Amino acid sequence: MAILKSMGKNPSGERLKKVQQSPNYHDDIFQNQSLTLVMAEKGAFFKTFKKFLNKPKNTVPPKPLPSIKTDLKNLPDGNPVLVWFGHSSYLIKINRKHILVDPVFSGYASPFKFKSAKNFEGSNVYTVDDMPPIDILLITHDHYDHLDYSTVLKLNSKTKHIITSLGVASHLEYWGFDMNKVTELDWYDSVEKIEGIKFTSEPARHFSGRSFIRNKTLWASFILKTKDWSIYLGGDSGYDKHFKEIGEKHGPFDLAILESGQYNEAWKAIHMMPEETVQASLDLKAKNLLPVHWGKFSLSLHPWNEPIERVMKKSEELHVNVTTPLIGEPLIIGKKYPFKKWWREV
Is the pTM of this model over 0.90? Predict the structure, then answer.
């Protein structure tokens, strides 16, 4: 029963005791810093569910997405290199080390092979076999579009360390991972598993869960810092005060990687609107913005390319530097920021 196995297992026993000691855990669940409703109003779930049964055709691209097939095992040394795989999956090479974030290469953002959760045609051109040896596998939270069961199983043997949010290791342990190579972080915790590369967990405004039971594991954003570079890895988050607080404490950032898609007014507290994504990059004091969480899956009701169009419009108004690489196109921080409106040719 691979589907049931893929749903994972929430913390119990000693792991649950560890979770319960977190200052962010009370009333038997993890809590956001601000009041956060997954659905904005009573009855919104059923209204939205009906709309999902008849999703507009423009939520999916009319043609296969373009991409670039880069040799990931031979990325250049020097400045950090980032390669985006669509949605929130990307590889970073920094200090000659490889960091892979929220990889989903199974083709689906769900344990079930629903048509609505299938990746866009042309967006799944990379596989685990294309990956170099992974020094750090970073999992921001346990949702299926960020923690993909089949992908992480295949990555296990080529991954040295795993860094994730508090409680998420329960899933990994259930799936047979060696817990000696897994590090869980609560908000504000830091770790340096590789000399010279520091990760700090910071708040996000979101939720967690791989079933109807929510918020038993933590969700987070992360800061990746070296002597020369600072990168903000946003994970999933609604807009809130934490962006400004992080910017004031840890900014400026050379690059902020922020979600910009899968939003809806019905769940506006847990996913930013594109205009808020641009504002968040300003709050963070980011020199450049990479909008993600779009370009691979249709998990909302908006047109597939609306997120990036709205980001572009707002970024022009606020004079924010945005980079828009194709799937697989290398971005070199401090040197090369691809900027082409490629989605308009689809």
Answer: yes
